[in-house]
Design brief:
By secondary structure, the chain is mainly beta. It contains four helices and 24 strands.
């Protein structure tokens, strides 16, 4: 689930530009890294065929079990009601001539699975319903467990146009104290009188604080901007909570001011380095492209006290591939996980090296489990119209093996 449409960018131009600016994608000094015990399995399919199951998130619980969530839609392919004209205008949805992207009238739900045997078997825990013309509202990659087992999830209020009474049209979060069976009322991340922010990632730092990562627009949430108009005003930002999401900081800039304007996208991810700095990989509009092609960039946030300051940002040596996903591992590596391949760095992003495992399915999310294994959830398909592709949920697992060169 994302705010702007998928567009693919060629890898060759991006890689050459990245190399010219000092970021290399070729092997360099350092250990030999191998993925061992790799497996890929389908762990869920919709009760209907073709299935519509997408936008996954995966996380570990305090008891070392795993949880995985995703969006599901079921219902008729034809004969459904359509979104009203004003909602279609505001959300720029469905895309012109592609009516099956309108999810109005379908049974939409957030599905939750759990595994207590290191991902070998999965059991359905819960399913909560929502109404929308969009293909998702909860950002499942922005879910995690607090130390007491409470679940926290991010929801995009603008994608709930049918709720009555209306929800704030900005980034919301909810808690579940019973393992996803019930959810508490929505709360806002930021004052909706001042900001509109979509939170696409939630992460826990080594000091216990929470990071909320996403796109910020400095406009009130009750604005009448269309989805495209709002996206044009968004720039990447972070929030921090030191009290398990009871309160959130003011927004923290994650790109230098001279880059923030016309950045062109809200999606990015971070990995915490040993120094406390944050390595970032961004999805953005290529500033050199007249056709507004989407590309991958990277940068570093320098830790300063309890906050961070953005340093230089530059092209990354990866092609565009949906929402960036970074994973800081206990082996001291950072993984960049994508449909175009998995790469690792052990020098804070100065060089990247291809890992010998298959590229992932669409919109991957990842964790390193309590057992040391890497777990990657994703879905077969893409950003598809309802009924056009038989989607399913996949899980990749492997271990990292390091040895001297």
């Amino acid at each position: 689930m994302r705010l702007t449409r998928f567009r693919f960018a060629g890898s060759i131009v991006i890689s050459l530009l990245a190399i010219a600016q000092g970021v290399r994608a070729e092997p360099g000094d350092g250990p030999s890294v191998t993925a061992i015990e790799h497996k890929r399995r389908t762990i869920y399919h919709s009760p209907e065929s073709p299935g519509f199951t997408c936008w996954t998130g995966i996380w570990a619980m305090p008891d070392e079990s795993l949880m995985l969530a995703f969006t599901q839609a079921t219902g008729p392919l034809e004969g459904r009601a359509k979104a009203p004209p004003e909602i279609r205008r505001r959300l720029n949805w469905p895309p012109a001539g592609r009516e099956n992207y309108d999810m109005t009238g379908l049974d939409l739900s957030n599905v939750y699975l759990t595994s207590r045997d290191h991902g070998e078997t999965w059991k359905k825990v819960s399913e909560d319903n929502f109404r929308s013309c969009m293909n998702g509202a909860a950002a499942h990659r922005a879910e995690l467990a607090l130390p007491d087992g409470t679940l926290l999830r991010s929801v995009w209020g603008r994608y709930l146009p049918y709720d009555d009474p209306p929800v704030p049209q900005t980034g919301l979060f909810q808690r579940s104290r019973d393992g996803s069976k019930t959810w508490q009322p929505y709360k806002v991340f930021l004052d909706p009188e001042k900001h509109t922010m979509f939170v696409s990632r939630l992460k826990r730092l080594s000091d216990g604080r929470l990071l909320a990562i996403g796109g910020l627009a400095n406009v009130p949430a009750n604005n009448r901007l269309s989805r495209y108009e709002l996206s044009a005003r968004q720039y990447p930002a972070m929030l921090v909570s030191k009290d398990n999401a009871r309160t959130w900081s003011e927004p923290i800039a994650v790109v230098p001011p001279d880059h923030a304007e016309n950045w062109g996208g809200e999606e990015f991810d971070v990995a915490e380095l040993e120094s406390g700095d944050l390595l970032c990989v961004y999805r953005r509009i290529d500033p050199a492209s007249a056709k507004r092609r989407e590309v991958r960039w990277q940068g570093r946030l320098k830790k300063r006290g309890d906050t961070w300051l953005p340093r230089k940002v530059e092209p990354a040596p990866f092609p565009h591939s949906g929402h960036p996903n970074l994973l800081a591992t206990r082996e001291g590596l950072v993984l960049h996980i994508a449909t175009t391949g998995i790469h690792w760095t052990n020098d804070d992003g100065r060089t990247w090296h291809r890992l010998d495992v298959p590229a992932t399915a669409y919109y991957p999310d990842s964790i390193q489990g309590p057992d040391g294994r890497i777990y990657i959830s994703a879905h077969v398909g893409g950003d598809n119209a309802y009924g056009s592709v038989d989607q399913s949920i996949t899980l990749d697992t492997f271990r990292l093996q390091l040895s001297p060169r």
